[in-house]
Amino acid sequence: RIVFLTTTTTHEGRVVLSLLLLRVAKRTNLLTERQRKREEEGTYMMDTTNTEKKKKRRIVIKVGTSSLIKADTGVIHLSQLAKICEQITELQKSSEFQCAIVTSGAVGAGMLQLGIKEKPKELQKRQALAAIGQAHLMHYYEDMFATLGVKTAQVLLTLENLSQKSQYNRAMNTFSSLFDYDVVPIVNENDTVAVEELRFGDNDTLSAHVASLISAEYLFLFTDVDGLYTSNPMKDPNAKRIQVVDDINKLMSEVDVASGAGSAGGTGGMVTKLTAARIASAAGCKTVIGKSTDMEKIVECALGLNGGKGGGEVTPSLNSKEYTLFLAAADAAKGKKRWMLSVPVKDRVRVNKEGEEDIKSGEPLLVKNVLISDSNGTKSSSNSYKVQDCIIVEDEEGREIARAIVNYSAEDLAHHNLRVSDAEEEFVHSSNLCVTHFNEEYRSVSRNN
Fold this sequence. Notes:
Number of strands: 17
Oligomer: single chain
Radius of gyration: 27 Å
Strand content: 15-25%
Structural class: alpha/beta
């Protein structure tokens, strides 16, 4: 305890005394770290308790090629592009949202530039067209957004970028800085350098990885498809559009999406959207599939804007069956487990009921619970994975339940001695397991929330 006795009454004397007291207090650790920081920044007497920025909600909007390029003429669909840009501008300027776009259409725009009618089969030619078309596509986006007073940035990613933890973190930091600058990132796969083994494969999957990377609340997949159907509506007049999906595994056992179910035109494409929804769900992001022509209504409804209730509820102006909502996991993957969603999958293995329960309970997966073959005697993997590879873990029926980084190779697992003497060994440590299957019990929102 320090006591000063003084008879100083002048203003200068009081200032000197105050500075002396501050210096002594600092040296004797009487000031908190926060007060010291304020003093050093010259804001010691300033109240900064209410100056922190409100955290904004992040959304990712994926725009398909069919939404950007007219199928009959192959030219850029300017009116549709303008509608997309206007909707995103409205969200961006609302001070509540930060938006990122994942765009398709680079190859199509390249074909337009060169007057090519049919997409070439050769990979190198498609990559060249993507390089030509990407610049052309960005030119349209930049001009449209500049007219609306919004700044944009081009971000080109490959799966290899995100599969390496250091590059993943750099990409995450770049997106954060772009959002701090109030810039809209426009994302596409870097087709020019991507190799076949390390490609996202489609922009539905890319958009899910971006949503996971930036911790988005919503992922919107806009295309010419207006939702997920119980069967192919072009062949089955009784096909119904599914409003809310609680359980993707259950859905895939009931709906044959590979046969064209889910596409109003019967052209398929729902398999990739279900994969994207699974990744986004595991990362705590809700996914909406709808028609790009209904974009404004769907976004307002899902986000609860202009009277919309959000979370799957609909406004009177929007038919209750004009999009499909995939719910998100309540216990979203974070940190390393979220990054694992971006690691390329090398193989698949199946586990028994005990192994499935261990995974869902947060326990490690033991060697004894990994199946070498399924109930029909078929091998449960292609024996291609090695130690520290990422694999998909499936239940006995072949339904995905988790992503995992393994401690043993397929060759090790098949070895008789390991199966007998080290059955209690951890095939996968709990920290290397990321659950990707969630039923309704594990969802973050209900149908009416």
